[in-house]
Amino acid sequence: MRRRIEVFLVVSAALFGALSPQLARAAGKFRIAVVEFENRAGNQWGRLGSGASDMLATELVKTGQFSVIEREKLQAVLNEQALGMSGAITPQSAAQVGRLLGVQAIVTGAVTEFGESQSGVSGGGYFGVSKREYRAAVDVRIVDTGSGEIVFADNAASTDSIANVSVMGFGGGGEWDEQKAGQVMRGAISTLTTKIGQRFKSWSPAPMAMKVANVKGDQVWLNAGKGAVNVGDSFSVFRKGEEIKDPDTGQVLDVEMTKVGELIVTEVKDKYSIANVKSGSGFQSGDIVK
Q1: Among 83, 120, 125, 273, which is least packed, fewest CB within 10 Å?
Q2: Hey, which of 29-43, 53-67, 125-139, 175-189 has the most confident mean pLDDT?
Q3: How far lies 176's CA from each of 78, 113, 132, 163, in Å?
Q4: If pLDDT is split at 50, 70 and 90, which confidence band does 2 have?
Q5: What element of type H or E holds 31?
Q6: Which residues pair with 139 in a beta bridge?
Q7: Which domains, ranges and CATH numbers included, belong to the chain?
Q8: What is d(CA 122, CA 41) in angstroms, rounded to the nearest whole number?
Q9: In Å, how far are 35, 162, 206, 244 from 99, measured between CA atoms?
Q10: What backbone torsions phi and psi does residue 178 show, to the nearest 5 degrees?
Q11: Is the pTM of this model over 0.90?
């Protein structure tokens, strides 16, 4: 039964994906990546998290608002950065992954509930009425890769039930209905898709954060390449100074920033770019480029 559920979720997501405009022009759409969801509903469901995240990716593409990066490309970057597990993406690491993939946001999530419950009444052994309820619940967070800020966090649940009547011990059903289980999962995903679409109607992605990667004479290497910068772009370079913290909570209230100089991009590669110094001196690896 568990194997059938896994196959149902993965195959149904693949079929819907084949029908969606995966090859649509990305201009005007938000470029996002959907990380494989965690399975917190119980290990017995195997690839439940993968199936749910595939469903969400498909539904997001179908809205026409999003261009979703291919799972294989995303997983390759996660493995390269030692972030292979679904729960490894944090607001801090999202900026790094975003630069490498050229995406504006990363979606993470977890399936928190998936299963069934049964209840019923008996008529003295002559008849009985039972109800089998199916439920799925999913949590989702979306991180802006430019700022590292969580710009969306919500959850959704879906339920459905089947009533069965037995007379003198005959009838009553009682078998797992995998179609009904798939429907409640898709119901939760559909609700989340609507919420995400509404949130992103008014969302403006933060500019991709860049840093100085290396310095040789008057040439400066930046840790951003194609899709993030273009030849001829000009940037200012800043260096972090003292952090201003709340004395009671320890929260960072502000960070002093000192301008180091200005750069102009002369060469762009896939994962990095090279710039010449327009003004200033003393550039260092780790300086912030805006």
Answers
A1: 125
A2: 53-67
A3: 36, 16, 9, 13
A4: low
A5: strand 30-34
A6: 110, 155
A7: 2-112+137-157+175-200 (3.40.50.10070), 210-289 (2.40.10.410)
A8: 31
A9: 16, 48, 12, 28
A10: -70, -30
A11: no
